[in-house]
Design brief:
alpha+beta; 7-stranded mixed beta sheet; 11 helices; 10 strands; rod-shaped; binds phenylalanine
Length: 337
């Protein structure tokens, strides 16, 4: 009988170790310790055992019963501990999961990418420069005279002896200085001006600069490139118009208008009944800037342009307040997914 009991214990050790869930463990408990379980049956037979063997066999049956009970209990605990790792106490694993909302691309990022894609298609490379600039790159090398009002702290943020760049044009200088033409770049970046915030102004905004320098570059090339750009961006029906303007670093300089995309040039509230909206500044790079970059200004000419990303995004999406771009209101941003 003792051998039989030990055989049952051995069998139980194997089956319990292999049990993979609580239901199987409960079945094993019945199989060994239930009313007609293997151990219970053996104990029932104890009555027929000769008196002198009774204490010994009784002791072993009790040990086997206790060992199997302990094995079962231990296994149950292990399983519950594992289940808790997945779902800690107090969690209802049957509740539906929380849905993840997919993020989207910020409209300014999307517009900047669309602009870059068009110019990349026209053979332009992408350049970058630091946000914190020196006076030299932001102003002096770009032919701003020392007393130019843009240098005033009322317009420009100063950080110790540096300036937060007020435009992306310093990237022109950084790309060109001490290198040989041809150059054909666009340069996107964040820019800073000491402005008070309202629906159309913000002290931080974004520009995309573009510049091309080579032999024989003319104003007509600039017009051609910008025409293609605006038609690719806003549609083939878009017309452009160049108005004389002034920038210290371009000569001649122009302001580019496009036919109003809201009224197709007929005149509306957005274009103030003129049929045109201002889109960017541009011009032929002033020979003084080329000289500052040690480029032979007799041999090479170039054009440059700079546009505000926010302004283009406002028109593209028909938004009337620039502040919406920076408030991170999910209800606004969700509309661009
Ligand atoms: N840097 C000018 C601005 O911020 C834009 C510009 C760039 C004009 C290149 C001409 C050529 O207003």
């Amino acid at each position: 009988m003792i051998d039989q009991l030990n055989a049952i214990l051995k069998d139980a050790e194997g089956t319990i170790a292999q049990a993979s869930d609580l239901k199987i463990l409960e079945e094993l408990r019945v199989k060994y310790l239930g009313k007609s379980g293997a151990v219970t049956e053996m104990m029932k037979g104890l009555g027929q055992v000769p008196a002198d063997q009774k204490p010994q066999i009784g002791k072993v049956s009790n040990e086997v019963k206790n060992k199997i009970t302990a094995l079962l209990d231990q296994k149950v605990q292990e399983m519950e501990a594992k289940a808790e790792q997945v779902a800690p106490a107090g969690w209802d694993p049957t509740l539906p999961g929380r849905r993840l909302t997919a993020g989207g691309i910020h409209p300014l990022t999307a517009v900047q990418k669309d602009i870059a894609d068009i110019f990349r298609g026209l053979g332009f490379d992408i350049a970058e420069g630091p946000d914190l600039e020196t006076d030299y790159y932001n102003f002096l090398a770009l032919n701003f005279p020392p007393d130019h009002p843009a240098r005033d702290a009322q317009d420009t943020f100063y950080v110790k002896d540096r300036v937060l760049r007020t435009h992306t044009s310093p990237i022109q200088v950084r790309q060109m200085e001490n290198k040989k033409p041809p150059f054909k770049f666009i340069a996107p970046g964040r820019v800073y001006r000491n402005e008070s915030i309202d629906a159309t102004h913000h002290h931080i905004f974004h520009q995309v600069e573009g510049f091309l320098v080579d032999e024989g570059v003319q104003f007509s090339h600039l017009k051609g490139i910008l025409n293609v750009f605006f038609q690719k961006f806003f549609g083939n029906e878009i017309k452009t118009r160049f108005r004389p303007s002034f920038f210290p670093f371009t000569e001649p300089s122009a302001e580019v208008d496009i036919s109003c995309i809201f009224c197709a040039g007929k005149g509306c509230r957005i274009c103030k009944q003129s049929g045109w909206v201002e889109m960017m500044g541009c011009g032929m790079i002033d020979p003084a800037v080329l000289k500052n970059c040690k480029i032979d200004d007799e041999r090479y000419t170039g054009f440059a342009f700079g546009m505000g990303v926010e302004r283009i995004a406002l028109f593209k999406y028909g938004i009337d307040d620039i502040r919406l771009f920076y408030q991170n209101d999910i209800r606004f941003l969700e509309q661009f997914q």
